[in-house]
Design goal:
By secondary structure, the chain is an alpha/beta fold. It folds into three domains: 31-111, Alpha-Beta Plaits (2-Layer Sandwich), CATH 3.30.70; 117-299 and 426-433, FAD/NAD(P)-binding domain (3-Layer(bba) Sandwich); 310-423, FAD/NAD(P)-binding domain. It has helices at residues 3-45, 67-71, 98-102, 147-166, 187-198, 244-257, 337-347, 368-377, 428-433, and strands at 54-57, 78-81, 84-87, 108-111, 135-137, 178-183, 203-207, 223-225, 230-231, 235-236, 241-243, 262-264, 268-274, 277-282, 285-294, 301-302, 315-316, 329-333, 353-357, 382-385, 388-395, 398-403, 409-414, 417-420, 424-425. Strands 5, 6, 7, 12, 13, 14 and 15 form a seven-stranded mixed beta sheet that branches. α4 (147-166) packs parallel to α5 and α7 (337-347) packs parallel to α8 (368-377). The longest helix has 43 residues, at 3-45.
């Protein structure tokens, strides 16, 4: 090859490489600007604040491969800024931990971070024990969502209790208090019962409703993600995702197979006493126990709106089976995932006309899947009425909405059923009465959605 030709080829390669570098730089800059814009918007809307567990990124270890961004099934939680992964919309994280698994250098850990300082999360030690020695918490009440997390915590608590009681096993008097009372027959409670059976503890599980906890209240055929998970005695679950009905059926089979000591229809009313001598007040009388595990949810009893007509039978607070509703005019009150899931399930039934009333100007904290499903129905079988509140359930055939404006407007809607998804009254008063300390302050918090001020971002 002659020298002029070699020089020409070399110059062309240099030019191509320079153009590629410039193109990559422009892409990186565009990605950076997009991520920063998302961060500004998230903070403006209050979506940057975590609800429970969320990704915590070690920026010194992050190598900028974006594997975490690609792995997250909920769009908008993570983004890349200056070659480093950043949390953008922490409130959308529901704790799958796929980002943590995808990171090749271990730079991400999904957990509570500083959330335990919040006044709506009990203070727990590494064993799940509260500020009252001998009273433990596992599952959603402790701030961790997901079935996998609840199951793991239930097992850990029982192991801690079994270790404590092992030193006194031969000293327990006949007819004395049981070793462990488990309050709640959801994922954490069932896993704890299995482990307690395995560890040969004298235990009892109580639940005011049926087994399954929050999962049983999911809409019909809702897809429930468990991830790879093992249950004590039973072993690894056969799948990583189940329809709601499949998971409930599996739990019921496990309960029967291992003869778990579960008593349903019994409400927890409070606990007093001290370690080795707790007296738990229930709707079925007093139960004496050496240790207590609270495996109950955060929502408690459904929160009512306090509007005229709410006592009518057509007003309900959960959707059990959407297939039983057809050719109906239905009002959904609320803007969370539960409300959207109920609305789309009802909109999928023949002849239904569904209206969603939400008091804000847009939806917040929806999963990507629910946003996509809602878009499929909006303008067809689902009508959205933002900046509105239910003023009264007028009669068996109509409701009245109040819509913000200048002046405010009233709208009468034809209606057969109203479903209210306004959260629940949390069990914090019961915790406070028992002396269980909550993060931040011992005062009992009142959870309300409040507008957040914009916070400047430092790139």
């Amino acid at each position: 090859m002659n020298i002029p030709l070699a020089l020409a080829i070399g110059g062309l390669l240099v030019t191509i490489l320079a153009l590629l570098a410039l193109w990559q730089k422009k892409i990186s800059q565009a990605q950076r600007e997009e991520a920063l814009a998302d961060i500004y918007e998230a903070r403006e809307r209050g979506l940057d604040r975590p609800v429970a567990q969320h990704p915590q990124i070690n920026t010194q270890s992050c190598i900028g491969c974006a594997s975490c961004v690609d792995a997250c099934p909920e769009s908008g939680v993570l983004g890349m800024v200056d070659g480093i992964a950043r949390v953008i919309q922490a409130s959308r994280c529901i704790g799958h931990s796929l980002c943590e698994e995808a990171c090749p250098v271990g730079a991400i850990q999904v957990g509570l971070g500083d959330s335990p300082l919040r006044a709506d999360i009990p203070v727990l030690d590494e064993r799940g024990e509260t500020s009252v020695p001998g009273v433990f918490i596992a599952g959603e009440l402790g701030g961790l969502a997901l079935i996998r997390n609840a199951t793991k915590q239930g097992v850990q608590v029982v192991d801690a209790v079994a270790t404590d009681l092992a030193f006194e096993r031969g000293k327990k008097p006949a007819g004395g208090p049981i070793d462990l009372l488990i309050v709640g027959a959801g994922p954490a409670g069932i896993a704890a019962a299995l482990r307690a059976t395995q560890r040969k503890l004298d235990y009892l599980v109580i639940d005011r409703e049926d087994v399954g906890g929050t999962v049983r209240k999911y809409p019909r055929r809702k897809l429930t993600l468990t991830g790879p998970m093992e249950m004590p005695l039973y072993g690894r679950l056969p799948k990583t995702e189940f329809l709601k009905e499949e998971l409930i059926e599996l739990w019921e089979q496990i309960i029967e197979q291992y003869s778990l000591n579960i008593r349903t229809g019994v409400s927890f009313l409070g606990v007093e006493g001290e370690r080795d001598a707790f007296r738990v007040q229930t709707s079925d009388g007093v139960i004496e126990a050496r240790r207590v595990l609270l495996a109950i949810g955060r929502r408690g009893t459904p929160r009512k709106l306090g509007v005229p007509g709410e006592e009518l039978e057509k007003v309900q607070y959960q959707l059990i089976d959407a297939a039983t509703y057809s050719n109906e005019h239905v009002l959904i009150v609320g803007g969370g995932d539960s409300a959207i899931e109920a609305a789309t399930a009802l909109a999928n039934q023949p002849g239904n006309v569904v209206t969603i009333s939400y008091r804000r100007d847009q939806f917040f904290r929806l999963t990507a899947r629910n946003r996509e499903r809602l878009e499929q129905y909006t303008g067809k079988s689902i009508r959205l009425v933002f900046n509105s509140t239910l003023e009264r359930v007028d009669n068996e055939r109509s409701v009245i909405l109040s819509i913000d404006g200048d002046p405010p407007k009233k709208a009468r809607l034809e209606n057969d059923f109203v479903f209210v998804f306004a959260g629940g009254e949390p069990p914090y008063p019961l915790l406070a009465e028992a002396g269980i300390r909550l993060g931040g302050d011992v005062a009992v918090p009142v959870l309300r959605e409040t507008p957040r001020r914009s916070v400047p971002v430092t790139p």
